[in-house]
Amino acid sequence: MAADKIAKPGAKPGNPCFSSGPCAKRPGWALENLAGAALGRSHRSQAGKAKLSQAIALTREILRVPADYRIGIVPASDTGAVEIALWSLLGPRGVDVVAWESFSKDWVNDVLNQLKIEKARSLVAPYGELPDLAQINFDNDLVFAWNGTTSGVRVANADFIASDRKGLTICDATSAAFAQPLDFTKLDVTTYSWQKVLGGEAAHGMLILSPRAVERLESYAPPWPMPKIFRLTKKSKLIEGIFQGETINTPSLLAVEDYLDALSWAKSIGGLAALFARCNANAQAVANWVERTPWIDFLAKDPAIRSNTSVCLVFSGECAATGADTQATLAKKMVTMIEGEGAGYDFGAYRDALPGFRIWCGATVETADIALLTKWLDWAYAEACVEATQAA
Q1: Which of the four pLDDT bands, split at 50, 70 and 90, describes residue 292?
Q2: 3-class DSSP state of 275
Q3: Which of these, 63, 162, 263, 356, is most buried using a 10 Å CB contact count?
Q4: Mean pLDDT score across all residues of the chain
């Protein structure tokens, strides 16, 4: 694990935030941008409802959600949106839950052990890989994450989903929305949170329902008690107000204003195509560094399923042979060194993942900042290796 000592980089990222959630604020963000927030007003007032309705309308426009799909703002971030879908929709069919990272394993637990759906099964792959998607039974409902935030693995596209499926597809798209093309014709429920690709504030989730999902809600009543914040129907009819800005519980109107600011920024730079391009450029900057750096590699070996947002890296070469404990110690030391210099924050691997790094490459991150972070990683690795050699 030898490395020559190198000079400390002379420049630092303009924005050193590389967390995978909450994520970096958009370029040019300032608290003053939120001066128009309807603070102190009821979310049910004309002013509050107008802000929430505007957030739904801009979401539809920028994310290109079909006109006949409902969009709702719900509590508890993406987690809340997924839980609402699982508890409200599952039960009349078997369920296939597909997982290849930490959060989608939570959905496995919910479906199999909490809701205890009959004829439910899981298809689980280790970090860095996808399960065999050809094994999915589309007579069943399907629950999956489009992009594995903690593994850096995504589905390449929606081609694996049957067009003539009998079941519903429930897609956790929280680190894919606004970064990767989502085929809504194949998605009956799509969820995400504001704090990912657009860098909004946390605690609010988005729930997007296809007409097929609405039909299920109005024709099926789950046998279990339904908490108030999960209820989408009343007397077997969809509560349409939820999808017009009349939220189930009280939202933060400051966070709503921040989401509106992020959506307006996205529109101003060219919309979805520009957001995709920024994510791809950021991920490519990491790829360029990996290609020339012998001690690092992608956790996802197949480029076709490699995330362009939550880019996960593991040690390679001599370092990969040192064992997980040594690698974990090295990774933690490097993160601490770089954070101590103010050159990069919160880019360590997820706690349940393999030792290494997870660099957020979403659209609010500048490509130049990614390139600078890689220089600091080179420096920290060299410093840590020299120290380890001297100690030995």
Answers
A1: very high
A2: helix
A3: 356
A4: 96
Name residue 348's beta-bridge partners.
357
Q: Class assignment of domain 272-391? A: alpha beta
Q: What angle do CA 259, 263, 268 make, to 5 degrees?
A: 145
Going by their DSSP bridges, the two strands 141-145 and 169-172 should be labelled as parallel
For residues 28 and 314, give the distance between their C-alpha atoms in angstroms, rounded to a whole number.
32
Sequence-ordered alpha helix ranges (H) in the chain: 46-63, 77-89, 102-109, 211-219, 253-268, 272-292, 324-340, 367-391
Report the alpha-carbon angle 244-57-260, nearest 5. Answer: 105
Residues 323, 193: Cα–Cα separation, whole Å? 36
Nearest CA to 310 among 21, 63, 17, 27? 21
Q: What angle do CA 355, 330, 13 make, to 5 degrees?
A: 90
The residue type at 338: I
User: Quick one: which of 189, 83, 184 has its CA closest to 142?
Assistant: 189
172 within 8 A of 178, measured Cβ to Cβ? no
Contacts of 31 (CB under 8 A, 6+ apart): none
CATH architecture, domain 39-268? 3-Layer(aba) Sandwich (3.40)
Q: Write down the residue that tokens 């030391």 correspond to.
A: 333
CA-angle at 128, arms to 206 and 312, nearest 5°: 70
Tokens of 297: 């590699």
Q: Please answer whether residues 306 and 179 qualify as being in contact, where contact means their C-beta atoms are separated by less than 8 angstroms.
A: no
- CA triplet 207, 276, 269: central angle to 5 degrees? 95
Question: What does the pLDDT average to over 328-334?
Answer: 95
* C-alpha span between 347 and 310 (Å, rounded): 10
Q: Cα dist. 277→181, 182, 238, 270, 286 in Å?
A: 11, 15, 37, 10, 14
CA dihedral of residues 106, 111, 115, 118 (deg, nearest 10) = -160
Longest dimension (CA), the chain: 72
**pLDDT of residue 123 exceeding 80:** yes
What is the rounded distance in angstroms from the CA atom of residue 173 to the CA atom of residue 360? 15
The structural domains of the chain, with segments of one domain joined by +, span: 39-268, 272-391
Q: With DSSP H G I counted as helix, E B as strand and the rest as coil, what are the percentages for the chain, rounded to 5?
A: 40, 15, 45
